[in-house]
Amino acid sequence: MEFNDHKPIYLQIADTVCDKILSGEWNAEDRVPSVRELGMTLGVNPNTIMRSYEYLQTINVIYNKRGVGYFVDPSAKDAIINQERRIFLEEELPKILNKMKLLNINPEDIFSIKNN
Amino acid sequence: MEFNDHKPIYLQIADTVCDKILSGEWNAEDRVPSVRELGMTLGVNPNTIMRSYEYLQTINVIYNKRGVGYFVDPSAKDAIINQERRIFLEEELPKILNKMKLLNINPEDIFSIKNN
Amino acid sequence: MEFNDHKPIYLQIADTVCDKILSGEWNAEDRVPSVRELGMTLGVNPNTIMRSYEYLQTINVIYNKRGVGYFVDPSAKDAIINQERRIFLEEELPKILNKMKLLNINPEDIFSIKNN
Amino acid sequence: MEFNDHKPIYLQIADTVCDKILSGEWNAEDRVPSVRELGMTLGVNPNTIMRSYEYLQTINVIYNKRGVGYFVDPSAKDAIINQERRIFLEEELPKILNKMKLLNINPEDIFSIKNN
DNA sequence: GTGGTCTAGACCACC
DNA sequence: GTGGTCTAGACCACA
Fold it and tell me: Between D81, D102, D110, which is nearest C111 by CB?
C-alpha cells in the first residue's frame, strides 16, 4: 500500500477500512484483521494499526471483543455514510462551490470531465 | 478567524490572501497589510504571517519592496486562477466526484444550485 | 450479560457468583453450574468460566469434586462477607467519600435512601 | 508520582489533571505543562503524556493551540463535574448501595468512619 | 520551542 | 492467539 505523505498513515488506514465497509467487502459483525496481521500485510508497525483501530472504535465503526479481536459494528455503514454526507454537504461543498465561483468554473466543465 | 485543523495556519492565511485577490478586493500593486498588522488582526504570531508572505512570494502572488512592504503582483490574479484551475480540475475534482458517488449524491443536483 | 469494560470478565463473573451466594440464591453445598453450561448461558468462552472458578476456589468460595463439579463452600458466605466488608470499609469507602466531597454530593442525602 | 498498577498510567495522569482543574489549581485558559516537561517531572515517557493529553482533548478538558501547547478549556470544570456526577449517581452509586445491602453495612458505620 | 507520527521492541493481562 | 500499555528514540512540521 502506498501512503500519501501529508496525511497520517493511521488515518489513511482508517479510511481504507471505512471504504471496505462502505463497498460491502466487510460486513456487519465480520472480524477485521488483527493488528499484527494487518501490520504485516501493509508493512507498517502494529502500533500504527492499533491507532487506526482505536480511532475507528471512537467513531463507532468497529468494536472490540476482549481477547478476541475487532469486529465491524452493525451500524458502521450507516454511521459512516451519515457522517460523511453531513461533512460533505455542510462543510466541503460550500467551499467547493465558492472556489468554483472564484475560478470561473461552470457545471458544464464538470460534466464534460465526469463523462470521460 | 478560526483555523481549520490539519491544514497549516500559514497556508490557510495564504489562501485567504489569494481569495481577496481573486475576488477583486485587493488589486495589482496594492500594498498588503504589514506582517505585524495582519498578525494582530488575526491573533497570530507575526512569524506565521511572515511564512505566508514568503510562500506567496515564491509563487509570485506578492512581491517585496525592501523597507516598504509587500505588494500584489500584477500577474497574481491570472497566475492564481490558472494554477488553481489546473489543480482543481485535475486533482481535486476526480476525488470529489468519486466521493459523491460513494455517498450517493447526484452531481447534477448539486451543481445546478450554481444557476439559482 | 453485559461486561463492564476495564474489569476482567472472569472477575466480573466471579463477582456475580459471590453475589448469588451472599443473597442466598445459592447455598452451602449447592452445585454451581458446569463450566460449559455457564459459558453457554453467558455467551462466554468456557476457558474464561474456568478461570473464574479457579479463582473462586483459591479464595475458598467454591470447591471441586473431581469428575462431579464445583460446589459452594460451607464457609463461603462468611468468608466473602468478612473479606469484602474489610475491603469496602478500608479501601473503597474513603475513595468514595473523597469523590463525593469533590463532586459536592452530600453523604447524608445519599445514604439515607437506604432507610426508605 | 506513584502509579497504581492496574489502571493505565496515562489515565491516572489524566485524572490528576482533572483534579488540579477541579481544585482550582489550574484555571481556564491556563497552559498545561508541555508533554516533555510533564514527562520529565513525572518520570514517564513523553509519549505517555501525549496519550493523556489526547484523551483529555477528546473529552473537552483541554484544547490545543498548534505549535504553542495545550490549554485548559474554559468549560473544563463544569464538564468534568457534570460528567463525573452523572457517572457516580447513575452507575457507581447503585452498585455501592447494593453492595452495602449485601454486606449489611449501615449508614451509621459510614458516618462513624467519615468523622474520624 | 511546541505537538504529532512512526518504528522497534518489550511486557502484560486476558480469552 | 488477541489487544493494550509503555519505553526509547527518531524525525517532522509548525509557531
Answer: D110
Q: In Å, what is the separation between the CA of C22 and the C1' of E3?
A: 52
Do the chains contact at B84 and A101, CB–CB below 8 Å?
no
Q: What is the mean pLDDT of chain B?
A: 85
* Residue D105: all three cell numbers together: 453495612
Contact A114 B107 (CB under 8 A): yes
Q: Is the dihedral of CA D1, D7, D13, D17 positive or negative?
A: negative
Cβ contact, residue pair C88, D103, below 8 Å: yes
Grouping H, G, I as helix, E, B as strand and the rest as coil, residue C77 is helix
Cα–Cα distance between A35 and A51 in angstroms, integer?
A: 9
**Pick among A6, A81, A110 to test the B interface (most B CBs inside 10 A):** A110
Note the pLDDT tens digit of each residue in A11-61. Answer: 999 999 999 998 899 999 999 999 999 999 999 999 999 999 999 999 999
B103 interfaces chain A, CB cutoff of 8 Å: yes
Q: Which of C22, C82, C90, C103 to mutate to test the interface with D (most CBs of D within 10 A)?
A: C103
Q: What confidence tier does B41 reach under pLDDT thresholds 50, 70, 90?
A: confident
The secondary structure of residue C31, as a DSSP letter, is B
Chain D: closest CA distance from residue C110 (Å): 9
Total residues belonging to chain D: 116
Phi first, then psi: what are they for D62, rounded to 5°?
Answer: -130, 165
pLDDT at C116: 46
What would be the CATH architecture of the domain defined by D1-116?
Answer: Orthogonal Bundle (1.10)
Query: Cell triple for residue B98?
Result: 468519486
Instruction: Dump the DSSP string for A12-34.
Output: HHHHHHHHHHHTTSS-TTPBPPP
pLDDT per position as a tens digit, D36-56: 999 999 999 999 999 999 999
pTM across the whole model: 0.80
Whether A85 sits inside 8 A of B105 (CB atoms) is yes
Alpha-carbon span B21 to D77, nearest angstrom: 44
Q: For residues B63 and B43, give the distance between their C-alpha atoms in angstroms, rounded to a whole number.
A: 24
Average pLDDT over every residue of D59-81:
93
